[in-house]
Specification:
Blueprint: E1 4-9, H1 13-28, E2 32-34, E3 42-47, H2 52-70, E4 76-81, H3 82-86, H4 90-94, E5 100-102, H5 110-118, E6 123-125, E7 146-150, E8 152-153, H6 164-168, E9 172-173, H7 176-188, E10 193-197, H8 206-209, H9 214-221, E11 229-232, H10 242-250, E12 254-259, H11 267-272, H12 279-292, E13 297-304, H13 311-324, E14 328-333, H14 351-375, E15 380-389, E16 394-398, E17 410-414, E18 424-433, E19 436-441
Parallel strand pairs: 1-2, 1-3, 3-4, 4-5, 5-6, 7-10, 10-11, 11-12, 12-13, 13-14, 17-19
Antiparallel strand pairs: 8-9, 15-16, 15-18, 16-17, 18-19
Length: about 450
């Protein structure tokens, strides 16, 4: 009987795509893929190492598996992903139960690595980052009706707080024909919603074609008949061109949902972050997007407690968030990452102040999102049905305003024929539950 391999993938959607490609390699090599890591012989932890909380989640997962290994429930543990790439020598030294530590460039060799660990060989493998496969078959871990489509790897932005360029290497776009081929394959397998991701999606194509090609790529993706929705994540504000705005405005399949990580609005802080813009330019961008894209939903992320952020600069950020009324927003307290320029800056802010500022932003945002939800009452919207809530005796799904795992839900009762999972239904919104929507479909 073939050995069973389980995968725990942490962190972002881009990491998940890497995990799915490794799963395909393992299945191709004859291993059984176990849905439950606890019922596996080998467990691969595809880690995140972006900020302190993510690193701790990865370590906690490894420690839990280590206790299962001691009990004899699993045989070997392999650590891959960003934490492995970043802390190459530390992982096995600190976590001696780990049998292999594999940098991202070793993902293509995962089947051989699993074989070696089962033979009792300890391994630390760190090929060049550019060896990470950008394209390839995968076993998707998402429901059949949506899939992530990674269009590039790495990052060239070098924000001073971010370790991603050190971990993932330079920005590398996939060729357009590869992306379109994969999108058509996904569509043929029943995918209705494609979610386009990269570290900086708006930079797509610059390295291959000498100019950004996201607008052109999205237009071509919209021509794939079976695809109903296309969602785009991680658009940098300074790279949102008039051409791209026109594509968002005019392509029906392209959801009017734009994820724009702004991080801050104060010009001095943004400059220290090695980001562009200021409150005036960002306000102008939001105004332009809302004027030119009917019904646009804007998601952003901001950061509190960046080194030397004054009380007045934080208050400017809080006022900006209140004024812009972003439909979706996440806020992170600054995390000092080793070997990044920001970690070496003077005037580091204490954890309590950073967290307190984060809480203020999120309390404000809850009010904005609650108002947005209340304003949806009386409207009729499309909802992608994702399941049945047995406790509430109703169905639930996502609207165009909701990306998987990061945004809200729509709960609804079916008054007529019961919808199928993955079906797009029309829901009349009648109420709210916190910031989620409630309604019924006929």
């Amino acid at each position: 009987m073939a050995e069973r391999v389980g995968m725990v993938s942490l962190g972002c959607a881009k990491n998940r795509v890497d995990a799915e490609m490794m799963l395909y390699k393992l299945k191709e090599a004859g291993y059984q893929i176990a849905a439950d890591p606890a019922l596996s012989d080998v467990v691969i932890v595809n880690t995140c190492g972006f900020i302190e909380d993510a690193k701790q989640e990865s370590i906690d997962e490894i420690l839990e598996l280590a206790s299962m290994k001691k009990e004899g429930r699993i045989k070997t543990i392999i650590v891959t992903g960003c934490l492995a790439e970043r802390y190459q020598k530390e992982v096995m030294k600190e976590l001696y139960e780990v049998d292999a530590v594999v940098g991202i460039g070793g993902n293509a060799d995962i089947a051989e690595i699993v074989k070696n660990t089962l033979e009792g060989k300890k391994q630390e493998i760190f090929p060049e980052k550019t060896m990470l496969p950008l394209s390839g078959s995968r076993i998707r871990s998402t429901p059949y009706y949506y899939a992530y489509l990674k269009v590039a790897e790495g990052c060239d932005n070098h924000c001073t707080y971010c370790a991603i360029p050190m971990i993932r290497g330079r920005f590398r776009s996939r060729r357009e024909e590869e992306i379109l081929y994969e999108a058509k394959e996904l569509a043929a397998k029943g995918v209705k919603e494609l979610i386009v991701v990269a570290q900086d999606t708006t930079r797509y194509g610059e390295d291959l074609y000498g100019e950004p090609r996201l607008a052109e790529l999205l237009t071509k993706l919209c021509r794939i008949d079976e695809i109903k929705y296309i969602r785009v994540l991680y658009c940098y504000p300074e790279r949102i061109t008039d051409e791209l705005i026109e594509v968002f405005a005019n392509e029906d399949k392209l959801l009017k949902y734009i994820d724009i990580p702004m991080q801050h609005c104060n010009g001095r802080i943004l400059k220290l972050m090695n980001r562009r813009g200021d409150r005036e330019s960002l306000t102008a961008l939001v105004k332009k997007l809302r004027e030119r894209i009917k019904g646009v939903v804007l998601r952003t992320t901001v950061m509190t407690g960046f080194p030397s952020e004054t009380k007045e600069e934080f208050e400017e950020l809080a006022a900006f968030v209140r004024e812009m009324k972003f439909e979706r927003l996440g806020c992170f307290a600054y995390s000092a990452e080793e070997d990044t320029p920001a970690a070496k800056m003077k005037d580091q802010i204490d954890e309590a102040t950073k967290k307190h500022r984060q809480e203020i932003i999120m309390e404000q945002q809850q009010l904005v999102m609650a108002d947005y939800a209340k304003n949806m009452i009386g409207r009729s919207i499309n909802v992608l049905c994702e399941g049945l809530d047995r406790y509430g005796d109703c169905f639930f799904g996502r609207s165009s305003a909701d990306a998987p795992e990061v945004d809200g839900k729509v709960f609804f009762v079916a008054e007529g024929e019961k919808p199928k999972i993955g079906e797009i239904v029309r829901v009349d919104i009648t109420d709210t539950l916190d910031c989620d929507l409630m309604g019924f479909c006929r």
